[in-house]
Task: inverse folding
């Protein structure tokens, strides 16, 4: 378990910047999981958003609303007041 700062987002999201299948899991106000194929996840420090993009989906997470970032093994946890978002890269054998 390793908490990290917003300034370390690019480093922690590096493995998600190449297209690949990811799983988004939501907890707290929304509960559920989404599988997104050929997704790219990156942080734009100029706009302050974490972008999740694929051919079929686009998400933006406003980092000014984040309380805590944490990495546990291969999962990134983004903790907002009313929502916890988990981002995990799906390996080929899991797909």
Result:
């Amino acid at each position: 378990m390793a908490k990290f700062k917003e300034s370390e987002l690019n480093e922690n999201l590096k493995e998600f910047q190449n297209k690949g299948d990811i799983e988004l899991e939501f907890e707290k106000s929304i509960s559920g999981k989404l599988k997104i194929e050929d997704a790219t996840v990156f942080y734009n420090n100029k706009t302050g958003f974490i972008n999740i993009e694929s051919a079929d989906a686009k998400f933006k997470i406003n980092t000014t609303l984040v309380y805590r970032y944490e990495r546990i093994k291969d999962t990134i946890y983004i903790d907002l007041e009313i929502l916890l978002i988990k981002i995990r890269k799906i390996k080929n054998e899991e797909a």
Observations:
- Strands lie at 2-4, 20-28, 32-44, 49-53, 58-62, 66-72, 75-80, 83-89.
- The chain is about 5% helix and 60% strand.
- The first strand starts at residue 2 and ends at 4.
